[in-house]
Design a protein that fits this description.
The complex is a heterotrimer of chains A (634), B (206) and C (128). With 206 residues, chain B is mainly α. Helices cover 75% and strands 0% of the residues of chain B. Chain B is built from seven helices and no strands.
Chain lengths: 634, 206, 128
């Protein structure tokens, strides 16, 4: 949007700049409450964990490349296998999607100046970082969790796991869950209350519908995991009885509570990918998403129905048929909303004038892997088939097609798509396209043979296998594929790192996107928008007249809100402007609360309960200090 | 848009009352508490669900050697707790009209009852732990986890109430008004929860 | 808006159409699942659960409520038949919700029928 800004306009912009700018340097980053900075903190932290999880994967694949390899001991393999799962799910894919992408983009896409609770946002990040460090401390103590990422009892109980490994797991995930709950709460209130005037729910970007679905899922799913982990710790450390039969408990209780969380968790993993795909497709197809209400419905419906399918992870546990039918029925239906989305995506591209630049190519790869992974997934809804293939590599194949192929590919595509917005520079298109092909071939070669070797009987979580079973060639190709995939990923990050410093200037809108982040500068100023936009459709950046009207308002001082650290709040459903809210600025208290909480969990781990109580008290004092500073007292 | 109420600037009871009248939707802080309540309610849902799951898994409930739950005292205590929703809500409506002293008095009254409730319940809790410790059975494990979680939530509620009382000693701002609204919502949730926990706790008597 | 003699506002119909079926299925799942756990656990000797009666009742009530919810969604769909779903609120927003709800409710109907039928047809407590 090229406009000539006049004197009064410039003065307002300068005033906004002065009010919203944060200190530079380390102190600025440690006390930041700016959603864009917090998004970047999440981005780099989750990338580090991605690297750790990737190294864990490559070590495992090396061990499995040949039969009876001796690269890793069984005990080390168990720790790697568990930490790979925990890292990739809890420390990479979810925090990357919501903490990095969600945090950076949601306020921009809804036309707000920040999240509803900026200090809580910072807390979410510091808690996340602390929980990751907590869990990785276990690796350096050779006591990493080793009972698989779903940590079944009775293996996870004291008699079979006497060390601290499982306590790291349980406490670490409770800790991580606090961060995720806070983030989810923030997204819901932000999406409900801070949308720009006129952005009624039917005009909200599909990325925001996906984030809303993710956040609601986290709110309702995490408690089940939390209580399961609390029960586990109480049983392990204080002699309670939940999971052992002689005292009236039931080992299946662990599984029910775990999967009551665990299945919604996998929709939490995939929904941001849906959101990214539904952002990239309209832009590069140069048309609106077809069946917009049905795509929005599908995102929320898959999350909702996903709460009712959990026992399909337990089809082989001996539960009665009349119990399991509930879950078979819902599992068969849960695939249909995703089918609606695949239909909408492909038809939108077909009816548009598609430009296959790197972001759209990654979405193409996503659609391929999602369809294949979805097909293997729906097969598990049939109880007899599931009972034959559960705990084999067929399952490993399915979920890696979905988690890697379908959740990570859009993240990679999204990195390229929004790179110009975040950095103000363009990435190298040729290298990006080549890295797509490396990643695509690598993913296919790593995970496709797993379907076959799983049907041939190779069970999951084995640290080696004998040569006589005919699995050798498949395992070797999977390992080769993993290294090809790694090469593709390294090229992606090299491209982004290089382009950050040497890329061509991008301008505000290099791809002609439809959503509001493309109306502001690249990178956006600390206050996001000099004028809060007024929205009349779901693709406001394509409504040229409305954007010109915004520019005109700057002179007149309408919707500028430059008298303080301000943003407007509106009504929940129809986004009628309702009040002006004063936002907090930088604060050291989120970091302080996170440090106290981290020390609290360390004391719980080492069973110094009295000291743990002291740190809990300190954390509460820090929370009090935080709230003692009301936003107007800047 | 200059006609929009500016909650950040409301630092006197009268200004706060004006913002409360003008605003259409509930404030961000209320929504934040509502979502938090949703997650805590789900937490208790899983605890109560576990109670009944374990109950269905056991022929004798409570198991032999464990006394049946007491009826009268928990019932009376819960009734007292639940009744504090009235003064808490009166506190909110008084503050929303700018009547700060009345609001604080109602809140203090509620806090005294809530603290009394908690004290009695903790006394009963400690007594029960000695009589049928959690390490004895799944029944006592889930019994004490459920009650412990509930009492922890009451304790947090009392801390929230104390915080609001402390902060409003130096006047009313929109920020503190939103905090009061959020605290009141939390208490209504805790009181409904108290009824659900009581029902579950007493269910073996049915 | 008058519906069979009842005066209910379009807002109520919109929300009931959007959430009614979903909440109905939630109850049918939680209670239906719970009943099978009760029937097939050791406590059934004391509780004597008539699982078939429960599941039939849940399925019947579930189907009725889902159909009512769908009726509400369809009535809003009809009222907003000339409105664009990206149009200004409240009509545009109502249309948007009604389009989504009228399709979404069908899912819950199918799940309730499938699961209820399965729970009644199979002999209790044989492991799958």
């Amino acid at each position: 949007m090229a406009t000539t800004v006049t004197e009064p306009g410039l003065r307002r912009v300068e005033r906004l700049e002065r009010i919203w700018v944060e200190p530079r340097g380390l102190l600025g980053w440690l006390t930041t409450t700016d959603h864009k900075r917090i998004g970047l903190l999440y981005f780099f932290t989750t990338l580090a964990f991605f690297g750790a999880g990737g190294i864990e994967a490559l070590l495992m694949r090396t061990q499995l490349s040949q039969p009876e390899e001796k690269v890793l001991s069984p005990e080390t393999y168990n720790q790697l296998m568990t930490m790979h799962g925990v890292t990739m799910i809890f420390l990479f894919v979810i925090p990357m999607a919501i903490g990095a992408f969600g945090n950076y983009l949601v306020p921009l896409m809804i036309g707000a100046r920040d999240m509803a609770f900026p200090r809580l946002n910072a807390l979410s990040f510091w808690l996340f970082l602390a929980s990751g460090l907590f869990m990785y401390a276990s690796v350096f103590m050779h006591a990493a969790p080793n009972a698989g990422w779903f940590d079944y009892v009775p293996l996870a109980l004291k008699p079979y796991s006497p060390g601290r490994n499982i306590d790291f797991y349980a406490l670490g995930l409770i800790f991580n869950g606090i961060s995720s709950t806070a983030a989810a709460l923030n997204f819901i209130v932000t999406i409900f209350k801070l949308r720009a005037p006129g952005m009624s729910m039917n005009r909200m970007p599909l990325f925001c519908f996906a984030m809303l679905a993710v956040s609601l899922s986290l709110i309702f799913a995490l408690p089940s995991l939390t209580i399961d982990l609390v029960f586990l710790e109480l049983q392990r450390n204080l002699g309670f009885h939940f999971f052992d039969v002689p005292h009236g408990g039931d080992p299946l209780l662990w599984q029910h509570l775990f999967w009551l969380f665990g299945h919604p968790e996998v929709y939490i993993i995939i929904l941001p990918a849906f959101g990214i795909a539904t952002s990239i497709i309209p832009t590069f197809s140069k048309r609106k998403m077809i069946a917009f209400p049905l795509v929005a419905l599908a995102e929320l419906l898959v999350a909702f129905i996903g709460f009712g399918v959990w026992a399909h992870h337990m089809f082989a546990t001996g539960l009665p048929t009349i119990t399991l039918v509930f879950f078979a029925a819902a599992s068969m239906m849960v695939v249909i909303p995703s089918t609606i989305q695949v239909f909408a995506w492909t038809v939108t591209v077909a009816l548009g004038r598609p430009e296959f630049r790197a972001p759209l190519m990654f979405i193409g790869g996503f659609i391929v892997f999602f369809v294949l992974g979805g097909l293997s997934g729906i097969m598990f809804a049939a109880i007899p088939f599931d009972q034959a293939t559960t705990d084999t590599y067929f399952v490993v194949a399915h979920f890696h097609f979905i988690i890697f192929g379908a959740a990570v590919f859009p993240i990679l595509g999204g990195m390229f798509y929004w790179f110009p917005k975040v950095t103000g520079r363009l990435y190298h298109e040729g290298a990006a396209k080549f890295s797509f092909w490396l990643a695509f071939v690598g993913t296919a070669l790593t995970f496709f043979p797993m379907h076959v070797v799983g049907l041939l009987g190779m069970t999951r979580r084995v640290y080696t296998y004998p040569s006589s079973l005919g699995w050798d060639a498949y395992n070797l190709s999977e390992t080769i594929g993993a290294f090809i995939l790694t090469a593709g990923l390294l090229l992606i990050f090299a491209n982004l790192a290089y382009s950050r410093f040497r890329g061509a200037p991008a301008g505000p809108d290099p791809f002609f996107g439809g959503t509001l982040e493309w109306t502001t500068t690249s990178p956006p100023p600390p206050y996001n928008f000099p004028v809060i936009p007024t929205v009349k459709s779901a693709y406001p950046n394509w409504d040229v007249e409305d954007r010109r009207a915004d520019a005109a308002r700057l002179e007149r001082g309408e919707l500028v809100f430059d008298e303080g650290h301000e943003t407007p709040a509106s009504t929940v459903v129809d986004a009628v402007p309702d009040e002006i809210v004063e936002m907090p600025s930088e604060s050291p208290w989120p970091l302080a609360v996170a440090v106290c909480t981290g020390l609290l969990f360390v004391m719980l781990l080492t069973r110094h309960y009295a000291v743990a109580g002291v740190f809990a008290g300190l954390a509460l004092l820090a929370v009090a200090a935080w709230h003692a500073k009301e936003p107007l007292e800047t | 848009m200059s006609a929009l109420p500016h909650s950040g600037k409301a630092t006197t009871p009268r200004a706060v009352a004006r913002v409360e009248r003008a605003r259409l939707a509930r404030p961000n802080g209320w929504w934040g508490m509502a979502i938090f309540v949703a997650t805590e309610a789900t937490l208790f849902g899983t605890i109560l669900g576990t109670y009944f799951y374990l109950r269905f898994n056991n022929l004798h409930w409570p198991p032999p050697g464990v006394p049946e739950p007491k009826l009268t005292l928990p019932l009376v205590l819960t009734a007292i707790l639940v009744s504090t929703s009235v003064p808490v809500q009166l506190s909110v409506s008084a503050a929303a009209r700018g009547q700060l002293p009345r609001a604080r008095a109602a809140l203090l009254f509620a806090a005294v009852l809530q603290a009394g409730y908690l004290g009695m319940q903790l006394h009963l809790f400690v007594h029960d732990v000695h009589e049928f410790p959690p390490s004895g059975s799944a029944y006592s494990s889930i019994y004490f986890t459920m009650l412990g979680a509930h009492h922890l939530h009451v304790f947090v509620g009392i801390l929230l109430t104390l915080w609001i009382l402390i902060r409003t000693a130096s006047g009313l701002t929109s920020y503190r008004m939103n905090g009061l609204r959020a605290t009141a919502f939390y208490w209504h949730f805790v009181n409904v929860l108290a009824l659900c926990v009581l029902g579950t706790q007493l269910s073996p008597l049915a | 808006m008058r519906t069979r003699g009842l005066a209910v506002g379009p807002e109520f119909l919109q929300w009931f159409g959007l959430f009614g079926a979903a909440l109905t299925w939630t109850v049918q799942l939680v209670v239906g699942f719970g009943v099978t756990i009760a029937r097939c656990g050791p406590a059934n000797a004391v509780l004597g659960v008539d699982v078939k009666a429960w599941e039939v009742a849940l399925m019947a009530a579930g189907i009725a409520l889902v159909l009512l919810s769908e009726g509400a969604a369809l009535s809003v769909l009809w009222e907003t038949r000339n409105v664009d779903e990206s149009g200004p609120p409240p009509e545009g927003r109502r249309r948007f919700f009604a389009v989504a709800a009228s399709i979404g409710n069908l899912f819950f109907l199918v799940i309730i029928v499938l699961s209820g039928t399965g729970a009644v047809v199979h002999q209790p407590c044989h492991p799958a």
